[in-house]
Amino acid sequence: MQEQIEKIKNTVFNYYKEVNYNVKKVTENSLGIYELEGFRTGFAITDADIELFLEIREKINVKNIYIIGNAFGYSTFVLSNIFPKAKIDVIDAECEGNDNRLGLEITRKIIEKNKLDINLFIGFSPEDVERSMRTNKYELIFIDGLHTKEQIRKDLDAVKNYCADNFFIVCHDVELASLQESIDRFLNENQNFKYEKYEGKININSVGTGFLIKKEENE
Question: Which of 87, 105, 125, 196 has the fewest CB atoms within 10 Å around its CB?
Answer without folding.
Answer: 196
